[in-house]
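Replying to the earlier thread about multi-chain prediction with a worked example.

Input:
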Amino acid sequence: MLFSSNVFLFAYLPIVLLLYFISPRVLRNPVLLVVSLFFYGWGEPVYTLLMVATIIMDYIFGYWIHLRKAAGKSAKLVLALGVAANLLILGYFKYAGFIVTQLKLLPMFAELAVPEVSLPIGISFYVFQSMSYIIDVYRDDAPVQRNPLTLGTYVTLFPQLIAGPIVRYGDVAEQMEGRRESVSKFASGVVLFLVGLGKKVLLANPMGNLWMLLQEEPGTAAAWMGIVAYALQIYFDFSGYSDMARGLGRMLGFEFLENFNYPYISKTVTEFWRRWHMSLGIWFREYVYIPLGGNRKGKTRQILNLLAVWALTGLWHGASWNFVLWGLYYAVLLIVEKLFLLERLKKLPAAVGHVYTLLAVLLGWALFYFEDLGALGGFLTQLFVPAGGTVHGTNLMLAFAPMVLVSAFAATPMAKSFLEPRKDSGAVRWGSVALAAVLMALCVAALASQSYNPFIYFKF
Amino acid sequence: MKPKLQDYILTGAFCGFLGLMCLGYLLLPKVDFSQTEKRYLAEVPELTWDRVASGEFGSDVETYMADHIPGRDFFVGLNAYVELLTGRQTADDILVTWDGRLVERPVAWNQENVDKNMSKINAFAEKIGQKVDFLLVPSAGWASREQIAGPADPYTDPAIIETVYGLAGERVRPLNLTAEFDDPNLYYRTDHHWTSRGAYNAYEAYMRSLGREFRNWADFTVETVPDFRGSTHSRAALWLIPGEDLELWTGSQGITVTNKETEGVHEGIFYRSRLEEVDKYTVYLDGNHSLVRIHNPNNAGKGKLLVVRDSYSNCLGGFLAESYEEVVLVDLRYYRTALSQLCAEEGFTDILVCYSLSNFMTDTNIVWLR
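Result:
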């Protein structure tokens, strides 16, 4: 189920809020677990079983690690087993097809049949969350969870189940039982949720539409405008989803970490990745980069660590070579920045850093978008070999220009830095009520229109 | 932190709105048919284990909820205005003009379809061994091209029509009325069709070109029906644009109409019960039918006309009947028998192929002309 759907907004959410708030405190986690499983099973009920199995498995591993540690024994092997089991699940459901396709290139495996596994929605997110639980227990970053239902609630929590933020167990362990809901939190959750919904429905969708339309158009300008539109689409889509998740979490009394911090205003690629999908970056830093030695074992080792982390980050985004390429592209940029570029950029005007970062990120999105390397080559040619466009292309760009400008503005913290110091003033408080109302109306309007389809010629 | 007044309002309004919408789905009477969209809305999804397991149930529910959202017309209209005011209408199918007209976006050239259609028309004329008149009606958008609000692609209807006419075979006689139709008032403001005046002008010009008599426009009694909202109105969903008048021009008495789909003989060319609908254009000859026969007893011995046509001729047909004893209108979207056979049986005096340019460019049913 998607947040930006009628089913979620007008059936699921009101019923869930009702059930949640009429339940006594002890039942709230179990209620959340049940409704989250329902949320997950809506599109593909079968995979709910996989989800339940994952939870039971991680519950056992967590408990096992706890028992060994309590008995003063090493739990390293159990942890390794637990991590391997989680990776195996992710590997099978997400990468089996990809791996077999690659193996088939070798003569001895040419006969292998490519398994047809449909990707369980959100698996990349919830497997990472489950892994963070057993690792945090192993590291004593969080106490073991004795109640399997509470652990289940943590893994399945519907706000962040499908697209994050990837909540580390250590960060919410305490909230799982000790959180308190309140009207103030609920109200700020409503605003955050509606801002997120607005980002998705009112900005990301039109930008996606423009990107689709411009892909049909020749010419250099169309290519640049198109990739800018795509960059805006992917940002608002993803950060909108994160905002919705955080908003919903807040309504239910949770506080999740921020996932995006205006990434497009970065002056270096290093900074960009500290601002983009922060929860994934933190996850890889905490559970891969630092355990590998991070930057503490010399320059060469650091570079190797970076390459490993970024190849994995790339693969995490999808089982396809272009994602690996995309990850390595960023690894190279980050390494170059660490070696000397950061120092140089500091001495140059800020504008240089902005332009360099935006260009690097836009090219990165081109790598990210085109799974087919031939199509990527064609698009890069269109970007860099000057060519004129069509009247229709120009008209499209003109027509969408206002929305592109609004989106670009919304991708900067300008509004926020203006409002933040004034947030307790009556004007801003009433303003946020008005904004919430307008966003709600416009989002519902956009959603209602998706099915509006007049037939011109019809016959009974 | 002590909650503020605004916190209570936000919480109450959000929960209240979601709750009301939820109840609205359950309690509001279910609308089966959407008048503006001219389609049946989604049925209540069927709940079976198989459909749930396959995920079909989930997508059915989404479709159902999208079709039956409380206040749908309001929300669709709101969205249409947001898109218009943010300038995005170029990407839409319907464009607005500064003087409040709703027109379709420019006709796109379709080489394959043009070649196919023209070869069919040429071959048909050869096959029946008779002259076939050919009229393409330029689009309403072209007539309003100077008035389009915001950036729009160029309308090139005259050039397109010229090119298509250039492909006409020996027995096909093109009729070029682009100069006469360069006037927005010959088209509706809220519909893609020509008005009665537009259809009359085409009738008069066609009769002059054949050297036949025609009934003068002043000899019709004109009745005005208010509140017509046509196809472009439904598609644009800009509900604040008002409806307009539709005219019923009555000439000869005693005209009767029959069509293939309905039993019995209808008196006169207007089907007044259709005036109750939102899209009243079907008042002319009851809308689209595979074969319509208009008989004018006052014109005994004045010959028979065959019109191969789209919906533009629903209105034109009534006028043509003023100059022939019988007018037969065939719509190839629904008529699949060989027309040459009909020609052999009926012995038509004249044959006209009349299409709006946009239909001619997109319609794939002219291949049935044989």
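Chain A touches chain B through 66 residues (CB under 8 Å).

Feel free to reuse this layout for your own posts.
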